[in-house]
Amino acid sequence: MNRYPSLVNILRVDAKALLSILIPFVLWLLDLTSMLILGAEPAEFTAHNFALLIIASAAFCLRVGKIYALYNGGIQISAKVVEVSFEQIKGKIKYAYAYLGHEYSPVLEVFTSRLTRRIMPGDHVTAMIDLDRPRQSFLLDLCVGRKS
Q1: How distant, in Å, are the alpha carbons of 13, 43, 57, 96 from that of 138?
Q2: Where is pLDDT greater, at 66 or 4?
Q3: CA 128 – CA 26 distance, rounded (Å)
Q4: Which element (helix H / strand E) includes 49?
Q5: What digits encode the pLDDT tens for the residues 36-74?
């Protein structure tokens, strides 16, 4: 394996990872605005945001940790893109691979970017799969910023 998944690339393409970071910041901005404009109590603002920060941090760490764990403990396997769809800023990439005689077709939720827009049905990509749970996978090409 030549390149490690980049946190920046994970955030650029993986919808779950980015949303776990974006949602708290948007809600913090709304709380701050309501505190400044409506005079909400700072103690309420701090308590809500701290709880939100803990939940969002846990979601982010779980998602990114899962990707890194697959990279470190999984295997690379060739996959074929079956279907690609985009709606404004989000999209889905469905890809298929075979492992130990079973066929798998996971769907990856992504954000629209130059990299994700280049992926087309029929393309061959590299997936990282979990040896114990081969349904668990991610597209290595997206996380290292290249397309096979």
Answers
A1: 11, 41, 21, 11
A2: 66
A3: 32
A4: helix 42-73
A5: 887 766 666 667 677 777 888 888 889 888 888 888 888
Residue 2: phi and psi, rounded to 5, are -95, -35
Joined tokens for residue 131: 């040896």
Which tokens hold the place of 15?
A: 């919808």
The answer to whether 130 and 104 are in contact (CB under 8 A) is no
Torsion of Cα atoms, 19 then 86 then 110 then 56, to 10°: 10
- Which pLDDT does position 1 carry in this prediction? 46
Q: Are strands 124-129 and 75-87 parallel, antiparallel or unpaired?
A: antiparallel
pLDDT digit string (tens) for 81-130? 999 999 888 899 999 999 999 999 999 988 888 888 889 999 999 999 99
**CATH number given to 1-148:** 2.40.50.100
pTM: 0.75
**Which residue ranges make up each domain of the chain?**
1-148
Closest CA to 141 of 11, 13, 17, 15: 13
